[in-house]
Structure formats: structure tokens, C-alpha cells
Amino acid sequence: MRMARWRPYLLGLLGLAAITFPFLWLQLAPDFDKNTVGVVWAPQHGLEFFGDMSTVFVIGFLIWVGVQVNRRFGLDKALAANAVWQKAGSIWTHSWAWLVVPLIFLIVPLSIRTDAMRAAGTAPWVSTSTLGLFTFVGLYMLLAVGLNITVGMTGLLVLGYAGFYAFGAYFFALSQQYFSFFPWWLAAPLAFVLGGGVGYLLGLPCLRLRGDYLAIVTLGFAEAFRELMRNLDVTGGDKGIVLKDSSIFRAFAGLSHSQVCYAVTALVLVLTVFLVQRLCHSPVGRAWIAIRENEVAAEAVGVPVVQMKLLAFSLSAAIAAVAGVIYGAKDGFVSPAMCEFQQSIMVLAMVILGGLGNSYGALLGAGLLYLVPEYLKVLPSAIQNSPALSAIVPGFVRDSFQHLSDYRWLLFGVVMVLMMLYRPQGLIGGSRRKTEMLHT
Amino acid sequence: MSSGSTLMEIVMDGISRGAVYALVALGYTMVYGVLGMINFAHGEVFMIGMFACVYAIGVFSVAWGDHALLNLGLGILVAMIFSAAYGYANERIAYRRLRKAHALAPLTSAIGISTFLQYFIFLTVSKEKVPFPRFYSDFLTSHSLTIGPLEITYLRLAILGTTLLIMAGLFHLINRTRLGIALRATAQDQLMASLVGIPVDKIIAFTFILGSALAAIAGVMVAMYTNVLVFDAGYRVGLKAFTAAILGGIGNVPGAVLGAMILGLTEALTTLQFGSEWNDVTTFAVLMLVLLLRPRGLLGERVADKV
Asked: Around Cβ B77, how many Cβ atoms within 10 Å?
């Protein structure tokens, strides 16, 4: 009986082992004299792959054990019945409580260390590199919240989101070359309007149609935009544009450059989350959700489907463009690499991991997917420095941490598939959302 | 060179590009016709076909030496089997459970699979470009047939011939055989098809297997044509092929071929006029133009929305 249950899994695993066999265990040996090719048996190749993945397997196994324990003892139901937890849960549904998340983000690195403190030699609460890291987290949070409007709220797939991000950055970089005075705070609202306009124009032909045209049109847009930036002379080709000092973030009022970057990102993020959250709880947000759940039914009850879809998509594009301006002002440099397909995929994976249609989910997903690989990179040296840890942790696990950032994209793919199969509502997301995703 | 022969050359170039895109676009359009989902991982199946062929050639040449035709033929066969296996695995693992889900779910799952496969090859095979063993493609690329002012390499002839043969076979399969009837019935209404005794699961799996095998053939041809294999080749060709499928009207098999030919010719013209680095820009312009003028694609028909 038990054997029969496991047989399909066993067969599946054997099949997978068979079709991945050459790529994992063999190595190509090109013969350049005769222009032929041979293969050599290279088991170290596959062992290295599985060794590097060992951390992932361990984490996956722990999650699986957690799920099994939960299923056996019904922990989530017990937790849901608990009064304290219910209260904590009800906070989220309160209209103003959403501010908590971005505010925590704003407050946690209370890094606003003034010159006086620096002179006094007090240890910085947060180092410049951590601040830079968190600025990036903030930017990705901004992108994830923006993308969430289209993908999560309205249920339309966008695959070239990074195209709008790059559009904002290039708009800023190009226009500041021609005006003697064009600071970032002037560029950001303009980018918002222009980015929204580009989104509107792109959405106009394909949002009238049902189906997945938006995905491919935005993907095509991002690719075409990158080619354009790479080939034109004004945009500096592959090298990109270096911005003038006068238009980017500067040290200001006792704050260092990185602190200004961080503060601006955090402020824009709070503002965006505020606006998006207000919009989602307005009739507009209800219309978006109606379209997501059933477009035909929404149209039948009088939701202006095309306008609402266009609004959602242009708003997404506008937010990405603003994020692009902030990126430009932060790094003082823009390049075509900004709209690589991988960027779009990363933001999409963040939205999906956190929970489609949930702004907190997008924030959480962005934080997790950006920070976890970054911190895993730092972990090996931490292990090496501590004799106790280096005694416990085997060497290949340490290597695994180090290489895990190479495996980032691979894991994003796995995360997307697994989330869709087992938890389509994302980490944060109720059972209603799950039902909606799995049955139509 | 006279202008007439240049024009002919562009047309030839465009048609052979289009033929390759058509082979890949068929996989997209068949899956869309049956399941109503974009199989974003199809481009990666194409890329797997490229690599599987080179691996197979390597194994065979180690086993019994360099016999160009034998090894290449068997290599293509192995590539088809591998791609078909990957296509089936994708369907079984990532799409089957999501068949009744919100349209976003299988789409996202497909992108996940596509990213996974790309970086799987990136991490296990090569981060750089891998050269195709020229020994096996030389006799096709170095010899050419001269028709009047026009010179056509054997490789191009092979690409065109194979594509034509496959198209003919496919149209026959879809329109004239019992399997084709079952396929069209499944595309029309899965529930009704299963009620009249059509094994819907098997038909859908067959669609994936067939599309993937065609993609593998296209993959080997592209590898021979460009002489390089790279982990993101599937993404680039897949994007073009998908655009072709949309141009022709997604879900429509003749439309995919027409769209691919138009795209191939556009690219050939762009390469001549502006240089190949502008290909993506013109492709995108053509896509937007078609979507504006004929939103359902050139041959797509209007279907009623179902609740």
C-alpha cells in the first residue's frame, strides 16, 4: 500500500535524474583543432552543484517539517483562535495601521547621525554599507508596491516592469544634461507624470483585449528600450550616463550622502504606500479587485474595465519611473543594465512571494528576497571568525552560503513555481485569496 | 551586385529566419490553443534542445568516433527526446495542477520554470557561450546551391526543407487524423471532450511533447546557423517566436507561420538598413502596430468571452 503511494514520486525523481544527467554529471570537452566535441565524466561538477544547494535543501526540509507538524497538530487553527493573535491580526484591517510597516522601515536604521555626533566619535548605529543596502531594499520595496497594483490588485501580468524603472532613470539623466538646474526633486514628479503617460500609451492597444497581451507588450517594451538606450549616441551606449553632481543627492543639513539617499527613499516609500493603500480601499481599489476576480462579471455590473485597467497600469509605471529617478540620483549613474529581464523577474518574484494583491506582502517579499541572499553572502566570514561555529558548520555548507548569491535567480524560479502550486496567495494572504487563485 | 539579387537575398534570409521562428512559434500557439496559457518556458525547451544535441554528439563521438552525418542525425533525435521530456516535465510539474486556476497562476509558474531552466544551464553547463562543433555543420554551411544570381547554403536549404516538411506533417496531423480531431476538440472544450471519451490529460501532454520536439529541431538549426550555444538563447528566440505567434493571432497554427515569416523578413530588412542591433526595436514597433490595427492578430478570429 505505502509503496504504491510513493511509486509515482519515485518514478518522477528517476525521470528528472535522467533528463538532468548530462548537464550535471558530464562536461563538454571541445576539440578546437578538429572542431569537434567530446564529453568527459565530471562527477565533481554535479557534487558541487548539490553541495552549493545543500543550504536550500535544509531550509526546504525544515519548511516541509513545519508544514507537516502544522497539519498534524493544527497549529494555525489554534493560533487563529487565540485572542492575542486575533487582536494582532485585526490591527492590519484597521485603516491607519498600514503605516506601521513603512514606519518601522523608516525608524529601524535610526542612522540619522549628525555631524556633531560624528565629531564626538559615537559609534554609528548603522554603517554606510548597511545604509546603502537598505536604500536598495527601499527601492525594491517601491518597485514591488508599484508592480503589485497591476499584478496583484488588477490581475494583469507585467513582465517588463524594469523598463519603466529605466525609463525614469534615463529621463532624469538625459534632461539634466540639457538644463543647468534640474535636481532630483524636480525630476521625480515629472517622471511620475511621464512614466504614467508611457504606461497609458502602452496599455491603450493591449488593455482593450482580454488575455495576456500586456505581459508580452511590456516585455517587448523593456527589451526595445534597452536596445534603444544601447544604440543611441545621446544615451552613451553600453557605458550609460554619468549624472552631473548638481542634480544628484548631496550631503545636506548634517546628513551624509548615504543618509540623504536613505531618508529620501524611505519618505517616498511611505508616501507611496500611503497613497496606494488609500486607493486600494477606495471604490477604485474595489473595481480593480472586481476585475481581477472576474472581468466579464465586473463589466456587467458597470465597472469601467478598460479605464480601471489603464489607471492601474499607468500608476504602476509612474511609480517605477519615480524609483528610477531616485536610483539615478543615488548612484549618479544610469546604464542599460537597469532594464534587464532579470530585474523585472526579481520584482515579480518579490510580489508573488509576499502575496499578490497585498502591499505589506510586496514589502515583505522585497525585503526577504533582497536581504536574505545579501546576508547569506556575509555569513561565511562570520562563521570563519567564530571558532565555535566553524567547528560545527561543515565546510561545504559554508561554501554553499558563499555561492548562494549565484544561485539567486535559480531560486527565484523555484520560489515562483512552488508558491503558485502550494501557496498562491503568498506569505501574507488569506484563504479567500487562495480560493480565488486556485478556482475560477 | 544588382539590386534584384540583394532583394532576393534579403527575402531568403528573412524566410530562413522566419522558418526557425515558426517552428518555435508553433509550440507557443498550440499550447495556447489548447490550454489558453502562454508557455513562457517554451524558449528554454528550445535552448535545452541545443545543449542536448551537443552533449549527444559529444557522447557519440567518444563512443564511436566522428561520423558527421550519423552523429548529427542521432544528436538531433536525442535533442528532440530531451526537449520533449523537459516539455512534458514542465507540464506535469508546473502546469497540470494549475489548469483550473486564475490565469495569472500558470503564467507565473511558467516564468518560474523558465528562469529556473535558464539558470540551471547557466550554473551547470556554462556561463559563457559554448561553440557548436563546426565539424558537424561545415558540410552544410560551406557548400551552397546557385540558382541564377542567388547563392543558398545547404544549411538554409535544410532549414527551409525541414520546416516545410514539418509544417505539412503538422497540418495533416491536425486536420486529417483522429489525434488531430481529439486535439481540436480538447482546445474547444476540455469538459465536453472528456465526456465523449477523449483522454484530455494525454492530449495536453502530447501537445507539449510535440511542440517541444519541434523547438528542439529549431534549436539545433539555430545552433548550427549561429555556431554558438548560450544559456539565454531560448529567451531571445522565445520572445521573437512569441511575438510572431501574437502577430498571426495566438492559438492559430497558420497564423503562427505567417507571423514568423513577417517577423523574419522585418528582421532581415532591419539588419540591412540599420544593423542587427536594432532588431528588437523594429520587432516591437511591428508588434505594437499590429496590436493597434488588428488586435486579435492577422489571422485571429474574435472569440466570445466566457465567464
From this structure: 14
Using one digit for the tens of pLDDT, what is the confidence trace for A130-187?
Answer: 777 888 888 999 999 999 999 988 888 888 899 999 999 999 888 888 877 778 888 8
CB contact under 8 A, B58 and A12: no
Got the DSSP string for A127-143?
A: -HHHHHHHHHHHHHHHH
Q: Rounded to whole angstroms, how far apart are CA atoms A244 and B297?
A: 45
* Whether residues A30 and A56 fall in one domain: no
Q: For a pLDDT cut of 90, what percent of chain B falls above it?
A: 40
Burial A326-358 (b: 16+ CB within 10 A, else e): bbbbbbbbbbbebbebbbbbbbbbbbbbbbbbb
Q: Is A238 on the interface with B (CB under 8 A)?
A: no
Q: Is A405 touching B (CB cutoff 8 A)?
A: no
Pairwise CA distance, residues A82 & A9, whole Å = 38
Asked whether residue A9 falls in the same domain as residue A99, the answer is no
Q: Which of B201, B162, B186 is nearest to B80 (CA)?
A: B162
Closest by CA to B287, choosing from B255, B251, B243, is B243
Q: Report how many Cβ contacts below 8 Å link chain A to chain B.
A: 214
Q: Is A348 on the interface with B (CB under 8 A)?
A: yes
Q: Is position A80 within any domain?
A: no
Q: What is the pTM of this model?
A: 0.87
Mean pLDDT of chain A: 80
pLDDT of B45 strictly over 70: yes
Q: Which domain holds residue B35?
A: 3-293
> Residue B51 carries which side chain, given as an amino acid letter?
F
CATH, residue B8: 1.10.3470
Split into its structural domains, chain B has a count of 1
| Position B219 in a domain | yes
pLDDT, tens only, A346-387? 898 888 888 787 788 888 888 888 887 777 777 777 777 777
Q: Which domain holds residue A31?
A: 2-41
Name the residue facing B239 among A37, A45, A223 (closest C-beta): A223
Q: How many domains does chain A have?
A: 3
Of the partner residues A15, A49, A224, the one whose CB lies closest to the CB of residue B124: A49
pLDDT confidence of residue A99: 58
Domain-embedded: residue A65: yes
Q: What is the CA radius of gyration of chain B?
A: 19
Q: Which residues of B touch A412 (CB under 8 A)?
A: 112, 115
B286 pLDDT band (50/70/90 cuts)? confident
ipTM of the complex in this document: 0.87
Any CB–CB contact under 8 A between A103 and chain B? no
Residues A16 and A142 in one domain: no
Q: Are residues A58 and A157 in the same domain?
A: no
Q: Does B98 touch chain A (CB under 8 A)?
A: yes
* pLDDT, tens digit (0-9, with 9 covering 90-100), for B184-219: 999 888 999 999 999 999 999 999 999 999 999 999
